[in-house]
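Question (not urgent): is this output format expected?
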Amino acid sequence: MIKTASLLCAIFALSASPLTLSAEDDDRVKAARELLGTMNFEETMEASIEASLDAQMGEFAQMGLPPEGLTELKKEMLSFFMEVMTYEEMEPEMIKIYTDSFTADEMREMTEFYLTPVGKKSIQLLPKLTTQSMAIGQQMVQERSRELQQRIIPVFQKYMPREPAQPAPAAPVE
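Got this back:
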């Protein structure tokens, strides 16, 4: 019992103490933060969300939603995404993505590129290009959606129960 209590205390003490980064990790985090700043990540993220919503509004328009409905829907969705996906909350996650994928030197090279005229142009155009490429892919899949359904329905039929699962009985109250 004492060994268990000691072990739990040690685990708690370790989990409660702040983790220290190695110099290499600290360098990578610094390089990632600099890269995100150079990429104007906050503004790029907002532009990407807007571009994505514009594409979605096009789909809703095709479904018959009137212009005033599209305007209101976009406003609500944009407001929601801006509340949920704040830069302050996204930055640590983005730093982790970059530090897991690139060395500090690679991120510094990317930063140097994004400081060039072509790099700045690519940052500016990336949200639009991403939205356009997603729309192309979506159109290609939509044109063959019947084929996709024919291919995936057997998989669902194989692995999904034919009747809805019954909820588990409630645990007895003591």
